[in-house]
TrEMBL record:
Short name of any one Pfam family annotated for the protein: 4HBT
Cellular component GO terms held in the UniProt record: cytosol
Superkingdom, natural source: Bacteria
NCBIfam families, per database record: unchar_dom_1
SUPFAM superfamilies the UniProt entry points to: Thioesterase/thiol ester dehydrase-isomerase
GO molecular function list: 1,4-dihydroxy-2-naphthoyl-CoA thioesterase activity
Gene3D superfamilies (alphabetical): Hotdog Thioesterase
Protein name per its UniProtKB record: Putative domain 1
Keyword Iron-sulfur: no
Length: 165
């Protein structure tokens, strides 16, 4: 996010890519995190797909599903499904952080909904674990549909950290 004339605005996609390193999705740790996330019952129920993982970053996609619609009159996906996507993606980013996190749990997650997701379109979340201490990891996440220039939601979270022995 950047502030212009007192208003927060999302970083353009090109800026986000320049700030973060490319993800290495081939390492063993990333593959374990991917398998763990894909085995979680709520991730399976929502149809969540891990598309990128590694180096403290994760990208997850939730295909449009009429069963997840919160308002049948508009076809917009329920906010709870979006929050579950963002929370899961944030946890995956923490678990694949280079400091070798063994497990995590959400302590706090603030989600700001910017607009309704476009009915019929998948929602994708990119989460980055940008700082980690001995006991807490800090994550930023952005959810978007086909219009990646305007986020559906942005989130900041704190997650527990359990280091591997």
């Amino acid at each position: 996010m950047r502030v212009i004339a007192g208003q927060c605005q999302p970083l353009p996609r090109s800026d986000v890519r320049r700030i973060h390193k490319p993800m290495d999705t081939t390492d063993e740790k990333s593959q374990r995190v991917r398998a763990f996330m894909e085995a979680l019952p709520h991730c399976r129920a929502l149809g969540l797909e891990m598309t990128e993982i590694g180096g403290g970053q994760a990208v997850m996609r939730m295909p449009y599903n009429p069963a997840l619609v919160g308002d049948p009159a508009t076809g917009v996906v329920a906010g709870g499904a979006v929050s579950a996507l963002m929370d899961s993606c944030g946890g995956a980013a923490v678990m694949c952080h280079p400091k070798a996190v063994a497990s995590t749990a959400t302590l706090d997650l603030r989600i700001d909904y910017m607009r309704a997701a476009t009915p019929g379109q998948a929602i994708t979340t990119r989460a980055v674990c940008h700082h980690i201490t001995r006991s807490v990891a800090f994550v930023r996440a952005e959810a978007f549909d086909d219009d990646a220039s305007t986020p559906v939601a942005v989130a900041n979270g704190a997650f527990t950290v359990e280091m591997q022995s």
